[in-house]
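Hi, here's the filled form for the chain we discussed.

Project: internal
Contact: R.S.
Residues: 120
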Amino acid sequence: MILTNTETVPGLLIVEHYGLVQGSTIRAKHIGRDFMAGMKNLVGGELRGYTELLQESRDQAILRMSDQAKALGANAVVNLRFSTSSVAAGAAEILCYGTAVRVEKSPVDAQSASTQQRPN
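And the returned structure, exactly as it came back:
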């Protein structure tokens, strides 16, 4: 599955459009991570527990969005975006969305590639 935040995939032609696809997850803070984050606030630095939590959440949202796109017959998602929102005290939603499409090599590119490979 090709995922891109651009409108097109360089070198490929969009041949089918399936529409909007999305994946999301809602995660709550972990008491252990909260405690460590509070300690880190005293001395400064990266809150690694939260960084890991957000990365896991983004990965799960991407996987759910990709599964939805595959079910439609897509092999790419263009205009990929993320959004976050607070849904309750200590819980946030990570939303990943984009446009599901099917891409192929353009006939012109395929033809020029085959002529370049011919011996003289």
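Let me know if anything looks off before we file it.
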